[in-house]
Write a sequence for this structure.
């Protein structure tokens, strides 16, 4: 068994090298700086911020809500803490929230630079190659960081305030990986190694408290053990290697349970009757190909790609996706000895994106750009490493190719950032890509409603119902317009349709109860309010509102 590789001693040191990660940070910040002028958008921002007073501060009452809420189907207490701090600093000025997102993403780019630099050194050491050119490795790591950070697929996570959880969770996820790599470089056993071990586990816990996708980290660490760390090393066993991962696994398991409860609370999880096993498998294969394709050709990006409600796993597109996934997997397995980087990259990509591939389908989307934030990191490193190998023979050609690719990515990213400038622009863009997108019609309708244009709002809600008569949110939105116009019968009919389509969503009962209250049906209103409370045991903001409405009914 060969010895575990150690990073070769760095070469080509220069006083200028510390400026390279700084240059990465400057480029990333500049690409996303236009987002600092953006407002909140009608795509969860209104429910998370403009209509939600419970996150606005860091008092004991606010912290209790943050620690216990499953608001919008997520458990993210640390994310709420940062948003509460934003409120204390900026109030309801969205520019400050966007600044925090951009700064977090910039920090993630720098962290990824350091991870790539260490992994590249380890990879060279694992091949038994001569000490690499330190300058070339640093430039390669910088290119990888930029391929990740200024890719248009990152825009959704950075320019959308509600996705603070992506960039914040990513900060601690990447920090946990870096701490793990430092742990592996420390003598074994030693206090230094134990400290890095504890730091990595603690950083994972922080990542999980921002967003649950950190639950995939144990698989990523095992993949890195295989390559480039080449573990188990002499004196190690595979059992010990697995036992070492137990603290990470325990944290991941707890997060998985909380994520499941949050999704159930959010009434977004589809049953097997609604979305069968074959459909889920087909969607997962399609999703893997979709994200790979959008990484290579990041055009026609939309804020939402609707789930096909009648997904047929036997359609040619899904069969072709399954064939591609099987082919790549087979090539990765067969080429392990010669190309271990292929297997590790494919495994890390599939593992990190697996919770959102539709196996446990939640929400109306088949895919989302934000799901690539961490999952496509391996592709950025592979692209940069390929250019690094090319630079060994054709340095000028490699530099020109890297510069051209980064210029194209920066231009596409700048254009994509502009799309998120306001709600109407965002949903006009989505409908320009797909005029049949019912989700886009509903969200544009909500934006028009917020502006007071009830006619346009009603037209968009009606268009959504025409395109998808089973899309519950369209009825909910139209019911709101009907109630505002004073058409209580029409509002009741729409809320009733929402309840039939989403019987486990408490907001339908709450709004139907409100209409019954206005119509004088106090018994019916009380029954609806109580049902809403039964379905939302942990949503304190919602419960306080509904409890207040119920109290107005007196003895009913």
């Amino acid at each position: 068994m060969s010895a575990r590789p150690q990073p070769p001693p760095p070469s080509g040191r220069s006083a200028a090298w510390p400026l390279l990660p700084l240059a990465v940070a400057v480029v990333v910040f500049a690409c996303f700086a236009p987002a600092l002028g953006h407002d909140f958008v009608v795509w969860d921002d209104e429910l998370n911020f403009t209509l939600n007073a419970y996150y606005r501060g860091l008092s004991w009452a606010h912290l209790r809500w943050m620690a216990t809420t499953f608001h919008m189907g997520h458990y993210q207490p640390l994310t709420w803490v940062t948003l509460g701090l934003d409120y204390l600093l900026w109030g309801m000025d969205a520019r400050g929230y966007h600044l925090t997102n951009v700064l977090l993403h910039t920090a993630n780019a720098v962290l990824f630079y350091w991870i790539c630099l260490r992994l590249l050194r380890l990879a060279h050491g694992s091949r038994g190659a001569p000490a690499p050119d330190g300058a070339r490795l640093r430039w390669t790591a910088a290119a990888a960081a930029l391929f990740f950070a200024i890719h248009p697929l990152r825009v959704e996570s950075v320019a959308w305030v509600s996705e603070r959880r992506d960039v914040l969770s990513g900060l601690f996820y990447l920090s946990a990986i870096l701490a793990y790599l430092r742990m592996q470089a420390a003598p074994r056993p030693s206090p230094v190694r134990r400290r890095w071990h504890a730091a990595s586990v603690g950083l994972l816990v922080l990542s999980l408290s921002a967003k649950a996708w950190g639950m995939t980290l144990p698989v990523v660490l095992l993949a890195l053990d295989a390559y480039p760390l080449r573990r188990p090393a002499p004196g190690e066993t595979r059992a010990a290697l697995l036992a070492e991962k137990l603290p990470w696994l325990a944290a991941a398991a707890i997060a998985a349970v909380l994520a499941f409860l949050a999704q159930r609370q959010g009434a977004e999880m589809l049953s097997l009757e609604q979305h069968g096993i074959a459909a889920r498998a087909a969607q997962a294969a399609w999703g893997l190909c979709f994200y790979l394709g959008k990484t290579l050709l990041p055009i026609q990006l939309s804020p939402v790609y609707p789930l096909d409600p009648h997904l047929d796993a036997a359609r040619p597109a899904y069969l072709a996706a399954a064939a591609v996934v099987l082919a790549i997997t087979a090539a990765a397995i067969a080429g392990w000895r010669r190309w271990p980087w292929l297997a590790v990259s494919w495994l890390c990509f599939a593992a990190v994106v697996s919770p959102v591939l539709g196996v446990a389908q939640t929400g109306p989307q088949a895919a989302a750009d934000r799901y690539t934030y961490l999952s496509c990191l391996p592709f950025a490193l592979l692209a940069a490493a390929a250019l690094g190998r090319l630079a060994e023979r054709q340095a000028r050609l490699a530099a020109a190719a890297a510069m051209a690719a980064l210029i194209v990515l920066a231009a596409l990213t700048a254009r994509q950032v502009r799309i998120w400038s306001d709600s109407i622009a965002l949903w006009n863009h989505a409908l320009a890509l797909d005029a049949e997108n019912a989700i886009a019609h509903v969200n544009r309708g909500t934006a028009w409603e917020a502006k007071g244009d009830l006619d346009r709002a009603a037209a968009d809600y009606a268009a959504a119902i025409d395109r998808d008569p089973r899309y519950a949110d369209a009825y909910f939105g139209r019911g709101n317009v009907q109630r505002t116009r004073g058409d209580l019968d029409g509002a009741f009919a729409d809320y009733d349709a929402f309840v039939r389509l989403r019987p486990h969503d408490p907001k339908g009962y709450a709004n139907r109860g409100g209409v019954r209250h206005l119509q004088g049906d106090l018994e019916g209103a009380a029954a609806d309010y109580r049902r809403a409370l039964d379905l939302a045991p942990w949503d304190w903001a919602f419960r306080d509102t509904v409890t207040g409405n119920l109290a107005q009914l007196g003895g009913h």
